[in-house]
């Protein structure tokens, strides 16, 4: 039974809707609502632009979908609030975080993206900047917390562009190759994190025009590990046609992990967990810790 008390998301939405909408800078405006291919989204005004946070671009990746390509996002009815970031991928805590820094919510189901745009519904076709975060292929997030480098407001406002950031599977959930152990059904298990990003680009192709962006003018870019992800997208046939420009902010990837090395990593993981190769399917039913460990 649902509690009668309001959750944080509901309280924020109700507060913004009451007596008009008060933006982060005190201006009274209406909350923007757009119609995507999966349902209607309600965003917010922030830092002089329109923002839609925590937009699902793929379906659940836990349970039977673990280590598999992303599933399709489920449609919803009514209007979905898009005013808070979605959970980040399961990962270890950042060792550089100051003591007492809260741990962001994390989940296997982390396929959410965020959009910053100067306006919606004005008929404009703005360039789209699709950003992949750093952190190697093991840590990071497309927007949670107070990291100003992952806030697209300044770019959207100053250069009249649409900025998209995203979360995708990392670490074991995104890059553990199990094809040699579990067969053809898991042939793509070593790149599911990258396939998430491709799904995010497909979402941009199908929806970004609603947010004032041009699906025919998309630049992929990223910093550090995000740069390596851009390099990988350049070589992925499934990503061809989904972007038109690319910028690598350090971290270019010339050659990624060969299959033999990826298979050896999976064997090492099983040994660490005390499992024989014949017990590899236990990884599919195991629970996970916030640090991304399988238990």
C-alpha Rg (nearest Å):
20 Å
Largest sheet: 7 strands, mixed
How many domains comprise the coordinates? 1
| Count of helix runs | 8
* Unreliable runs: 1-6, 8-28, 289-295
CATH architecture: 3-Layer(aba) Sandwich
Strand content: 15-25%
How much helix is in the residues?
10-25%
Tell me the overall shape.
globular
* Count of β-strands: 12
Sequence of secondary-structure elements: HEEEEEEEEEHEHHHEHEHH
Q: Ends: how far apart? A: 30 Å
CATH superfamily descriptor: Alpha/Beta hydrolase fold, catalytic domain
Using brief descriptors, characterize the structure shown.
Rossmann fold; three-stranded mixed β-sheet; 8 helices; 20% strand
Description:
This protein has 295 residues and is of the alpha/beta class. The chain is built from eight helices and twelve strands. It has a seven-stranded mixed β-sheet. Strands 3-4-7 form a three-stranded mixed β-sheet, with no helix packed on it. A hairpin with a 4-residue loop joins strand 3 (33-35) and strand 4 (40-42). The longest helix is centred in the C-terminal third of the chain and has 16 residues, at 192-207. It is globular. The protein starts with 7 loop residues before the first helix and ends in a 10-residue tail after the last helix. The relative contact order is 0.14.
